[in-house]
Amino acid sequence: MINILELKDVNVSFAVESSNLHILRDVSLQVPRGSFLCIVGESGCGKSVTAQAIVQLLPDNGRVDSGSIKYFEDGKTTELNELEKFGTQMRSFRGAKIGMIFQDTLSSLNPAHRVGRQVAETLRQHLKLSKDEAKVRVIELFRKLGIPDPERRYNAYPHEFSGGMRQRVMIAIATICEPDLVIADEPTTALDVTIQAQIMTLLKNLQKSAGKSFILITHNMALVSEVADHVAVMYLGRVVEYGSVNQVLRSPRHPYTQALLQSVPSLEADKKIELKTVDGQTPSPADVTTGCEFAERCIYAIETCKNQLIPLLTFEGNHQVRCNRIDENGNLPKPNKVGINV
Amino acid sequence: MSSKNDLTKPLYRAKGIKKHFPVTGGVLRRIIGQVKALDGVDLEIFRGETISVIGESGCGKTTLGRMLAVLQKPTDGELSFDFGDGLKNVVGLDRTKEMAFRRRVQMIFQDPYTSFNPRQRVGSAIDEVLQVHGNMDPDERFSRIKESCEMVNMRVEYLQRYPHEFSGGQRQRLAIARCLAIKPELIIADEIVSALDVSIQAQIINLLREIQSETGLSFVFITHDVAVARYVGHRIAVMYLGSIVEILPAEALPGGAEHPYTIALLSAVPDMNLQGKKKQIALQGEVPSPIDAPSGCAFSTRCPFVMDICRLTRPTLRLAHDGDPSHLIACHLEKPPIGV
Amino acid sequence: MNEKVTSTSRLLLNNFVTNVAGMCGLLVIFLVITAAIFAEQISGYDPNLMDGMSTSLPPSTDHLMGTDQLGRDVFSRVLYGGRNSILIGITASFFGNLIGTVLGAIAGYLGGKIDTLLIRVSEIFMTFPQLVLVLIFVTFMGQGVSNVIIIFAITGWMTTLRLVRSEFLSLREEAFVEADRAFGFSKTRIIFRHLLPNTMSPIVVAFTINTAIYIIAEAGLSFLGLGVPVTTPTWGNLLSAAQAPVVVEQYWWLWVFPAVAIITFVTGVNFVGDGLRDVLDPRQRTKSKSMTMSATLKEKFFGSRRQAND
Predict the structure, then answer these.
(1) What pLDDT, in 10s, does the model give residues B261-281?
(2) Inter-chain residue contact A59 with C293, CB threshold 8 Å
(3) Which CATH number fits domain A3-235: 3.40.50.300, 3.40.50.360, 3.40.630.10, 1.10.10.10?
(4) Which residues, 6+ apart, have CB-to-CB distance to C168 below 8 Å?
(5) B245 interface with A at CB cutoff 8 Å
(6) Hey, which of A25, A174, B190, C236 would disulfide with A237, CB 3.0 to 4.6 Å?
(7) Taking CB atoms and an 8 Å cutoff, what residues of chain C touch A125?
(8) ipTM of the prediction
C-alpha cells in the first residue's frame, strides 16, 4: 500500500489570550493512494484543524508544534509543514496537488464574481492557460459534475445556485487542476439527504475513475459506513481509533467509538431499547492536559487513565486504538461508572 | 413506550392548511407569484403520541410547525384543538382563549443559542412563563420550576446563570424545562437536535422519550433525520413541497414505505446496517422551487413512476395498500412500486 | 461549567476597564464634571461679579485664566459655563434619545402602518438641516438654557429612532422573541422587558455621542448669539467673545480656555463612546470576523493572485 499522505505525531496549538491550547495531540494518519479516509468526531475534536494543518492554513494564532506531514508522489517526498506558508511551493500544492472542499459554500465563494471565473481562476493560476482554454475546461467539468446548462451557468453568480449546485461548483474548483488528493470538510452537512447522496456518488466516482485519494471530514457515522475505506475517530485532538471501515464500525474497540456508534439510531433500531450514549459533554482542551482525554466520561476509566501516557495498541490489519483498559486480546473489562449527571 | 390512542378523538386537528407567501416584484411592487409553503395539509395528532414530521428543504415542515403553534395565521384551512370537550378552532382567538391555547401547546426551536434572552437569567425566564400563565404564588412557581428541572436532569442551582454559560445541549434541556413548567399537552419540537453533537442528540432523544412516558404529552417532532424520526415517533408524516405525501407507523419504516418519494428518501439516507437491503431509487435533480410548484402531484416532475394523471390531479391522502388504518398515502399508484 | 456567575453586564464592565482610550476618556469626563459641579468651591469668584478695576487682565495667580472686558473672572466663568454646557449636552441627549427610543421601539416592533407613519415623520424632520430647524424654533420660543435643551431634543430624536428601529427589526426575528410569542407574552412585555434591554448598547453609545454633538452645537449657536444669552455663561457664549479679531489676537485667554475646555470634554466623551461601542458590540465583530476568515481561507487556499504578497 503506497501512501499519498502521512501524518506522524502532529501537534498543533492555538495561542488564545495568554495561554496555548493544545488542539491536536500526536495525530498520526495514513492515506493510501486511491483510498477514501474519513476523519470522524464531534465538535471540538480537531478534525477540521487537521485538514487546515495539512494545507498549512491554520489561523494566525495556530501553529504546528511538532510532527511531520509528508506528501508522496512518484518517489518524491515533500514535508508539507516544512514549506513556507505562502511560498511558491506550498501554493503550488494547494489547488494543484491537494484540492479542498469546504462546508459553507456561501462564504467560500466570492459573491461578487461569476462562478465560472472563480473556477477558471484556479486553473489559470496553476496551469497558465488562456481565458478561453480555461473556460472550455471549466464548462466540461461542470457538465461532468452534473451542473445542468453549463454554458449558461458559467456566467451565473453564486447566489443564483442552490446549495447542492454550489457544492458542485466547489468540487469543480477543488478538482479542476486534477489534484491527487482531495480534502472535503463536511461538504454535505448543510445539504438535503437526497442531494448528499448525489454529491457522495460524485466523489466516489472520482475516486474510482480517476484514482483520487480522499479525506472526508464528517460527524456522520452512517455516511462514513457507506463511503469510507479507512476511518480515524478523533476526540479532543487525539486519534483514538484508526482502521479499515469494517474494523472500526463493525468491531470498534475504543469506548468512545463504541459510544458514538450506539448513539446513532439506525433505520432498523429497536425502539424499545434506549440509546446508549455518553453523559456530559466534550471538555475544553485546556481542562485535559494529562492522561486520556476521554477518561472523565469513560465508563471504563480508572485512576491511572487520568495521569499516565496512554499506550497505542495495534491489532491485526493495522487496527490501532489508544486505550489504557484494553487487554492484549482487544477486550474491555466490565464498565464501572454509571454515568454523570450534569 | 405505551400510548393511549383513542383513535376517534384527536387532540389536535389540522385540515386543509395552506400557507402562501406573496412574492412581490417589479418597480410597483406588485404581487407576481405565491410561495406555496403549505398547500393543503391534513393532520391529526392524538394524545400521548409522538408524530415525527420529515422532509427535505422546501417541504414546509417548519412552516407546518409554526402553523400548529399559531405563530402565524394560515392562509386557508382549519386548526382545531380539544380543550376538554371537543375540537374548537384556535385561529383568531381573543386574548383569554389564546392564552388557554398557548398554555397547552408549546414550541421548542432549533437554535439553542438564541432561544433564550441573553440578558435574562434562565431561572427568571422560566419563572416569567409561569407568571404570565397562572396565578401561582412564588412558592408554587418554585416547586414547578424544580419539578421541570428534575425532569430534564438539570440542577436547580444552575438556574441563576445566564444562557451563555450553558452548552447547546444544556440550553435545549432548559428550553424543554421551560415548556414543561406550565404542563402543556402538546409540544412542537422544530429540529431541536439538529444543531447538537451526536452524543448530545442521543441524550436529548432519550430525555424526550422518558418525558413522554412519564407525562403522556404529545409531541410533534420535526426533523430531517429519518432514522431519528423513526426512533422517536410513533407515526411518521413525510412531506414534500408543501403537502404530506405519506403517514405511516414508525415500525413500518423502512420496508413498509409505499410512496415513491419516501422510498427515494430512504434510499438516500446513509445507514450502517442496511446496505444492500434498501429499495433503491436514486433521485435526480433537485426539489423545484415552491413558487413554480408543479400542478397535479408535487412529486410528478421527479417521480420515476409518473403517469399522466399525476400531472393533472393532486392525489389526496387515502388508505395505503397494506391495509393498516394508520397508514395513509397520497399517490395515484394503485400498488406500491416494490422491487425497484 | 464555571463556578462564578457572570452576568453579561459584569463581563462588559471587565472588558471596558481594560480599554485604555475609554478609561482615559472616562477620567477626563469625571474630572471636568467634578470641576463643574464644585465650581463655587474651586473658583472663589462670582462669575457675574464685574470688577471695574481688573478688566482684561491676562492669566495670573489671582485670576488663573485672566479677566474679561467687564472684569469678570474667566476661570469661574469657564467652570460655571461648563456646568451649563454639560447640562445642556446631557439633558438634550437624554430626552432626544428617550423620544427616539420609544418611537423607534414602537415602529420597529409593530411595523406596518405605524412604522411607515413614524418613518415619514422622521424623514420630514430630517429634510431640514438641523441648524435651520433649530433657528426656526429659537425664533419662536426664544433663547435660554431650557429652550435650547427642548429644541435640541425635538430636532435630534430621528437618528436614535432609526437606530432603535433597526435593532428591533433584527431582534424581532430572533428565536427568543419567537419563543416569547409562542408563550403568549404581550407585546408590551416583549418590547420593554426583552427587546429594549438588548438594545441598550447602541442606545448608550448614541447617548454619549449625542452629548458631544449637542455641546458643540450649543457652542456654535451661542457663539452666533442665538443660543443661550450671555447672562448665563456657557462655553459657547464665552467663545462668542472671539468674534472680534482684536480679542483673538490680543486677549487670547478669553477664548482659548473655553475652546480647550470644549475640546477636552468632547474628546473625552467620544473616547468613552468609542470604548463602549468596542465593548458592547462583540456580536457584530465576531460575526464579521469569522466570515472574513472563511473567505480569506478559500482565497488563500486556491492561491488567488491577489493574495500573492500576503
Answers:
(1) 999 998 889 888 766 555 567
(2) yes
(3) 3.40.50.300
(4) C104, C105, C107, C108, C109, C191, C195, C199
(5) no
(6) A25
(7) 302-305
(8) 0.85
